[in-house]
Amino acid sequence: LWNSVTIGDDGLPVIAYEANNSLYLAHCDDVSCATATPSLVEATGAGDLHASVIIGSDGLPLISYRSSTENDLKVAHCQTVDCSTSAKAILESAGDVGEFTSIAIGTDGLGIISYYDRTNGNLKVAHCNTTSCSSATVTAVDSPGDLGQHTAVAIGSDGLARISYYDATNSALKLARCTNITCSTSTVDTLDFNGDVGKQTSMVIGVDGRVLISYFDATSNDLKVAHCENN
């Protein structure tokens, strides 16, 4: 459950996922991942993990996730490429936080994590203060209302983060454009509000430098795509 995949600096895939109420990382043994070596990262407790993995600027996996027992936003910085050892840090523990995490590496070489604060119904961002993300600066990006489920984050062509997410209050797909590297300020746009739309977002930056978002239209049971008309 809650699996997330990326390609390591060794050219081999790594997959973060939930099993047995725990966070694991599987390091593939070949490019097709016919076999893999799994490592237990942390026993997180029963509940949804919401893991996301990226390769940090140090070449090691960095995993954002939710501690199911404490309902905290956490990060695991792998100390080996297969994550056989890692350092864990709590980035936010106030309330029920850390659902729907998504992680990217900014142009400053530091991790930036989008996630949902269920207690306050906010979209939040944690900008790592170090390469290992032992601590982070937390910002509420969009409020009030019930906002921030189903997040995805990517770094735009201007070097600043973009975050797609679901606005549960208005059943809409929204996009936040960070206006600085830490995302302490941003602009927010509604991209689709025709029915109940915007769950399960996934986002990339295309070769044209523009955001491309895939998402679920729950009203018509369709897969939809939003391609931004500007950067």
Summarize the structure.
The chain has 231 residues and is mainly beta. It has strands at residues 4-7, 13-19, 22-28, 36-43, 52-55, 61-67, 72-78, 86-92, 97-105, 111-117, 122-128, 136-142, 147-155, 161-167, 172-178, 186-192, 197-205, 211-217, 222-227. The strands form five sheets. The protein has a four-stranded antiparallel sheet with strand order 1-2-3-4, with no helix packed on it.
Explain the layout of strands and helices.
Blueprint (H helix, E strand, L loop, with lengths): L3 E4 L5 E7 L2 E7 L7 E8 L8 E4 L5 E7 L4 E7 L7 E7 L4 E9 L5 E7 L4 E7 L7 E7 L4 E9 L5 E7 L4 E7 L7 E7 L4 E9 L5 E7 L4 E6 L4
Antiparallel strand pairs: 1-2, 2-3, 3-4, 5-6, 6-7, 7-8, 9-10, 10-11, 11-12, 13-14, 14-15, 15-16, 17-18, 18-19
Structure, described:
- The chain is an all-beta fold.
- The protein has no helices and 19 strands.
- It has strands at residues 4-7, 13-19, 22-28, 36-43, 52-55, 61-67, 72-78, 86-92, 97-105, 111-117, 122-128, 136-142, 147-155, 161-167, 172-178, 186-192, 197-205, 211-217, 222-227.
- The protein is globular, with a radius of gyration of 17 Å.
